[in-house]
Specification:
globular; mainly alpha
């Protein structure tokens, strides 16, 4: 186990280094830049822009800028936002909990609903429910997430008035029920595509396990169908699904970016787009590195969970 963890730690460090180099280079080589925001200020002269660039360290060679940023990152200083001069970690932290709440809720919904649809579709193979679930999954995978979000806002907010159209809470309220009501639409829209993916994979995994020899042996011993389903089929079907969950984290983060924008949810996705539009590179790089760290941690936890569930798997 220790050898496995050390190996994954080394791989994670290398991957984060590659992500940081590529991200820093792409951002700084893109047209525009942080100075474009200052250039829009009335009366701004080239001499003033040059002074601002020198104060921000933007007049130095790109490798020097990267090295200074990377050394500060290792020391725990992620820089300061160009927009409001606040520490990057403080800016991200003020939006991180909102994204984790949205991602956690949508992931739980997608797992529970996707597992139920996938298992029932496998047990009732080629039934009306199985065909309906297949068609529904294809529709969910074919239509963009933002379209579902806009349709949900139109139906449940504008027409029916059941749910709020956006934001995380009502100003002046902030109760648990108010948070829950605001969470319903964005979490369901974000979970929709993941439910489609999870249900299809779960159906395939259950069908594969049902055709194994140990399932036929369990039936020959006279075990009840419910016992076979809970003790053997579901337990063995969850092994590849946990791995899938780790691989789905980047997709969930990307979906959160779109969903947060549609529903004006104050999370990291909306912060990323706002910072990108303002050319607030320290915040963008901080979000990029934090997202990479969360994905690596999620995949590591998925591998450990697979080893815990399946005793045949050993992490060397």
């Amino acid at each position: 186990m220790l050898r496995f963890l050390l190996g994954r730690l080394w791989q994670s460090i290398v991957l984060l280094l590659i992500v940081s180099v590529i991200g820093f280079a792409v951002l700084n080589l893109a047209p525009g830049g942080p100075l474009s925001q200052f250039a829009l200020t009335p009366g701004m002269t080239q001499a003033q822009l040059a002074r601002i660039a020198h104060q921000m360290g933007l007049d130095r060679p790109l490798p020097v800028q990267y090295w200074e940023w990377f050394t500060r990152l290792l020391a725990g200083d992620w820089g300061r936002s160009y927009r409001d001069n606040q520490p990057v970690l403080a800016v991200i932290w003020s939006h991180l909990l909102a994204t984790l709440l949205l991602m956690g809720t949508s992931t739980l919904i997608s797992i529970l609903l996707g597992t139920w649809i996938g298992v029932l579709g496998a047990l009732r193979r080629y039934s009306f429910f199985d065909y309906a679930a297949t068609v529904g999954a294809m529709i969910a995978l074919s239509i963009p997430t933002f379209w579902f979000g806009l349709i949900a806002i139109y139906l449940f907010s504008l027409k029916l008035g059941w749910l709020p159209a956006g934001n995380m809470y009502t100003i002046g309220d902030g109760s648990f029920l108010d948070y829950a009501v605001h969470l319903i639409m964005p979490s369901l829209v974000l979970a929709l595509v993941n439910v489609a993916v999870w249900s299809r994979y779960m159906r395939t995994a259950v069908l594969d396990v049902m055709n194994q020899d140990f399932i036929r042996t369990a039936k020959a011993k006279g075990l009840k169908g419910s016992a076979i389903l809970s003790r053997h089929i579901l337990r063995n079907s969850l092994v590849p699904m946990i791995t899938l969950l780790g691989l789905q984290l980047p997709t969930i983060l990307g979906g959160a970016l779109v969903t947060e924008t549609v529903f004006t949810w104050p999370g990291m996705g909306r912060l990323f787009l706002d910072s990108l539009g303002y050319s607030d590179y320290p915040v963008v790089m901080g979000l990029l590195m934090l997202s990479a760290i969360l994905v690596l941690i999620g995949n590591l936890l998925a591998d450990l969970a697979v080893a815990f569930i399946d005793p045949r798997i050993r992490l060397g």
